[in-house]
């Protein structure tokens, strides 16, 4: 098993000690774990109601020092990647570029958390929008984020909006957004960018990406499917990995992959 999307106390929304994550990963038998703390800035957040806060960038030099130590300490038990989850907005992209250039990350996830000036975690984004409008705006932001002027290795949680949207049927089916999704998938396939299966919501009946999207990715020739739990607590490391592997296998995938310092490694499923 592998887990390529995890957060610890260096992200503003986790209190987990990094070593606890690593020990949990070893106990669960993982061969590879990547820590991907949040890097989000606030220039892209224009509209919010009181209480609708946004995460900000918290990565400090201690991050590399601590993970570097852990990487050495557990070198004979597990491979550890030191990564980041970079939140994209047009307004923040030059700032993200600067910060990424200062640090030597093994792996960079490109994620959308903000759309058109709103944090889509909060309900105000959805006010006055149909599901189609909200989801198309999200997919448009994903498409735009692929033009980010910095290196990234993976598109994180494609369909993240389905976690928090206010609609009764939250799912994002390929057929309903085919043109936008095809544009995104074709672009990432062309550029060997990984597509992430984010297992965070499988336990609640939500696949991210939706299985119809994963299937379309496969049909278009995409084979660089990675997997991440988005765990903010050690107990959730590699959560629902087996379910994700079964689903990927049913579509036709023979392996997940992870990417570390540009090198892609296949992990049979
Ligand atoms: Zn995220
Ligand atoms: Zn995350």
Q: In words, what does this structure look like?
A:
- This protein has one domain (2-268): TIM Barrel, CATH 3.20.20.140.
- It is 32% helix and 19% strand.
- The protein contains eight helices and eleven strands.
- The strands form three sheets. The chain has a seven-stranded parallel β-sheet.
- Helix 2 links the parallel strand 2 and strand 3.
- Helix 4 packs parallel to helix 6 (178-190).
- The model has no long low-confidence stretch (mean pLDDT 95).
- The structure holds zinc ion (2 copies).
- One zinc ion binds next to loops.
Helical residues, percent: 25-40%
**Alpha-carbon distance between the termini?**
9 Å
* Overall tally of structural domains: 1
Residue ranges: pLDDT <50 for 5 or more in a row? none
CATH architecture: Alpha-Beta Barrel
Rg measurement, Å = 17 Å
Mean pLDDT: 95
In one word, what is the shape?
globular
What is the CATH superfamily label? Metal-dependent hydrolases
Number of strands: 11
Percent in strands: 15-25%
Present as ligands are: zinc ion
Helix tally equals 8
User: Sheet with the most strands?
Assistant: 7 strands, parallel
**What order do the SSEs take from the amino end to the carboxyl end, as H and E?**
EHEHEHEEEHEHHEHEHEE
CATH fold-type name: TIM Barrel
Structural class: alpha/beta
Q: Give the neighbour order of strands across the main sheet.
A: 1-2-3-4-7-8-9
What is the CATH class designation? Answer: Alpha Beta
């Amino acid at each position: 098993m592998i887990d390529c999307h995890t957060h610890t106390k260096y992200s503003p929304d986790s209190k987990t000690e990094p070593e606890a994550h690593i020990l949990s990963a070893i106990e669960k038998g993982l061969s590879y774990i990547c820590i991907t703390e949040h890097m989000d800035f606030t220039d892209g957040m224009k509209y919010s109601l009181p209480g609708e806060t946004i995460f900000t960038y918290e990565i400090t030099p201690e991050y590399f020092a601590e993970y570097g130590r852990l990487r050495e300490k557990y070198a004979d038990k597990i491979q550890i990647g030191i990564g980041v989850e970079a939140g994209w907005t047009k307004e923040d992209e030059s700032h993200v570029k600067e910060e990424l250039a200062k640090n030597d990350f093994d792996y960079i996830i490109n994620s959308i958390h903000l759309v058109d000036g709103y944090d889509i975690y909060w309900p105000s984004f959805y006010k006055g929008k149909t599901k189609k409008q909200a989801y198309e705006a999200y997919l448009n932001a994903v498409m735009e984020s692929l033009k980010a002027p910095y290196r990234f290795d993976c598109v994180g949680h494609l369909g993240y909006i389905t976690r928090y949207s206010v609609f009764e049927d939250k799912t994002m089916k390929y057929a309903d957004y085919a043109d936008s999704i095809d544009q995104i998938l074709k672009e990432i396939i062309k550029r060997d960018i990984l597509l992430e299966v984010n297992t965070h919501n499988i336990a609640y009946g939500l696949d991210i990406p939706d299985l119809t999207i994963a299937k379309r990715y496969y049909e278009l020739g995409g084979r660089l499917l990675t997997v991440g739990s988005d765990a903010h607590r050690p107990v959730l490391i590699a959560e629902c990995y087996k379910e994700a592997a079964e689903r990927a296998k049913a579509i036709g995938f023979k392996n997940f992959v992870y990417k570390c310092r540009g090198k892609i490694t296949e992990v049979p499923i």
